[in-house]
UniProtKB/TrEMBL annotation:
Signal peptide as annotated in the record: 1-15
Domain Cathepsin propeptide inhibitor: 21-80
InterPro entries membership: Papain-like_cys_pep_sf, Prot_inhib_I29
Name recorded for this polypeptide: Cathepsin L4
Entry keywords, A to Z: Signal
One Pfam family cited in the UniProt record for this chain: Inhibitor_I29
UniProt organism field: Fasciola gigantica (Giant liver fluke)
Amino acid sequence: MRLVILTLLAVGVLASNDDLWHQWKRMYNREHNGADDEKRRNIWEQNVKHIQEHNLRHDLGLVTYTLGLNQFTDMTFEEFKAKYLSEMPRASEFLSHGMPYRAKNRAVPTSIDCVNLVM
């Protein structure tokens, strides 16, 4: 009897995911074909599972914010990072090497006498 209930629950989840997948694709104008559709769907399902698990932790009071679906739900973090995030130097690099000053067409003094500086 347990197996029947678990099977019915799994089928219900898959059916609702199928509907949600098609709604999501319509909302964000996604048209994938063949193997790419299957790949995107698998990534999307993994992200939906992560979102649902996180929101369950929110409902239990373990985290303070919720997650939701957006136009990036069919992307891995690596894909998102490569497409939308620029490589920024680490703060530690600025601290150890300083941030270079690149003045264009300006003469920059090699030193400044701060003691006798007149303003």
